[in-house]
Structures are given as C-alpha cells and as structure tokens.
TrEMBL record:
Annotated membrane topology: Multi-pass membrane protein
Keyword Transport attached: yes
Keyword Cell membrane: yes
Regions that span the bilayer: 75-97, 109-127
The organism's taxonomic lineage, starting at the top: Eukaryota, Metazoa, Chordata, Craniata, Vertebrata
Assigned GO CC terms: chloride channel complex; plasma membrane
Reactions that this protein is recorded to catalyse: chloride(in) = chloride(out)
Name assigned to this protein: Bestrophin homolog
UniProt keywords, alphabetically: Cell membrane, Chloride, Chloride channel, Ion channel, Ion transport, Membrane, Transmembrane, Transmembrane helix, Transport
Length: 130
C-alpha cells in the first residue's frame, strides 16, 4: 500500500545483486527536493531535517542489511555447540541429589532422572539450532 503500481513495477524491474532498500530512499530524496522547489516544504531547514531523518533511517536499514549479509563464522557455531553439550554433561553429574539419610557408602551418585536439566538442555539445543 505504500507504492503505486508503477513504482512497484519499476522497483521489481531494477537489476541489483543486493537488497534494494535504498531505492525508495532515493525516490524520497528526489521528491523532497521537488517539494522544496514547489514550495510545499517551507524552508531549507525543514528540508535539511527531512533529509537527516531519511539518512538515519537509511543507515539503520543498511545496518540490518549487513547483519543479514555477513554470516556467523562456522567456528562460532562449533564453539557454542561444544559449550552446550559440555554444560549439559557437567549438569548431569553436578545436579545429582545425594541424600545423607540414605547412608551411601563412598558417596555414590544418585541415578535419578534430572527432569529440569533435560528441559534446560532441550531448550538450549533448540535455541542453538534456530
């Protein structure tokens, strides 16, 4: 609803190997200049404020584009995967419950199923996969 049919046709017809977020910004800049020449924008200070806001918006769009364009290196994914699995194995051992009233000889591990540790592991692994 922000583009006319003609603008949409022109935008889709533009050949660019990259994202085309900058095209509407260029159109806005041209329209703002035309509005100033026609007197719809009262003075140069108002035009300057419009263009500063446009440049800030364009900078934020560029920043988002760079986050999408530059992928996370493979080694970071591998380090996080190893950290999650190491954390889980450590928690399996470290969160075992020893009841002194049971009189364990040699303080052996209680081999119960740590439900919340498993839920935490599934959450972390699911988050890692996303």
């Amino acid at each position: 609803g922000f583009l006319t049919r003609e603008e949409r046709r022109r935008l889709e017809g533009l050949r660019s190997p990259y994202n085309k977020f900058w095209v509407p910004c260029a159109w806005f800049g041209a329209l703002a200049g035309q509005a100033r020449r026609e007197g719809r924008v009262r003075d140069d200070c108002a035009l300057k404020l419009l263009m500063e806001e446009l440049n800030r918006f364009r900078g934020h769009c560029s920043l988002l584009f760079h986050y999408d364009w530059i992928s996370v290196p493979l080694v970071y994914t591998q380090v996080v995967t190893i950290a999650v699995y190491t954390f889980f194995v450590t928690c399996l051992i470290g969160r075992q419950f020893l009841d002194p009233a049971q009189g364990y000889a040699g303080h052996e591990l209680d081999l119960g199923v740590p439900i919340f540790t498993l839920l935490q592991f599934f959450f972390y692994v699911g988050w890692l996969k996303v």
